[in-house]
Amino acid sequence: MKTSKSLHTFSTFRNFLLRIFNKEFLVFLFFLVLSGGFWLIMTLNETYEREFSIPFRMTDVPRNVVITSDLDSVVRFTVRDKGYMIAYYELDNTFRPIVIDYRLYNDGQSKGNIPVNDIQRQIYPQLSKSSKITMVKNGKFSFSFNFGRHKKVPVRLLGTVSPGDNYYLARVDFIPDSVQVYATRNVLDSIQTVYTERQQLTNFTDVKELTVDLRKFTNAKCIPSRVKMKLYPDVLTEESVEVPIEAINMPNDKVLRTFPSKVKVNFVVGANRMRSMPKNAETKELLPVGFRVVVNYEDLQKSHSEKCPIYILNSPNGVRNVRPAINTVDYLIEQR
User: Fold this and answer.
1) Which helix (H) or strand (E) is 57 found in, with range?
2) Hey, is 88 helix, strand or coil?
3) pTM (2 decimals)?
4) Of 2, 126, 177, 223, which alpha carbon lies 20 to 30 A from 208's?
5) Who has greater pLDDT, 170 or 18?
């Protein structure tokens, strides 16, 4: 019984195949393949242009020479030829690198230039005789160098850094905090700071560490070209301190007394910074070290007002939004 069913199934499947692959279908399939072949031959026989790239490097650079400009790592060029040759180049993709000998192209002082014709002369032997280079795209085929002249330059952050709500950026550390910059004397004299690539960092509350690239200079090279950056956010708190009022620009024969003699100064500071600020050993109250509130005698001479304005002249590092609780005080000028 099982054998009979198997034979029936095989017979049904065979009849199905015969209905599909009948003579008309096979003829149609043959001409379809033939026409596709003719189309492919005609297409490949047309003339096309395609862009290719080829590795590019410099050799024989002396040990005492530092290349201070960035040469392109590839040369991009456009080739015109029949479609089958273009297809071969795309499929083969085995162009040998262009190798430039430093000794042949430097001026012996600080610059070098590689003519485009010399680049093409290294590309053509790798192409078919029928191929033509129609364009070599603009690239960095000129270079600068020096004989090891350099100086150490500090690294600084460039960009916008905004920690989360009620936080501020307390500190930025770089590892290393400075880099060696190689360039000619004139270029080195103009470089005082190396900045990072522009950063845009927002809404973070924990220490953030990342590796960043340094901004490039024309005809100068930074070693290293990347540094580690650590950002330290801190919680903001509102604090205050009593600060004595000083008089400035006073004549030697006069004394200015203010009422009150001290003023409350409000400010915002990070929690970590607050812990490091000087305090009274017994009372633990904040000391006004670094704060300076003044009255300018010259302002009094001009205004002749009954009250004198007070100013915040100095405040410690790390505090912000510093403001006196009152803006004017009573005063008295006495003769010595």
Assistant:
1) strand 47-59
2) helix
3) 0.66
4) 223
5) 170
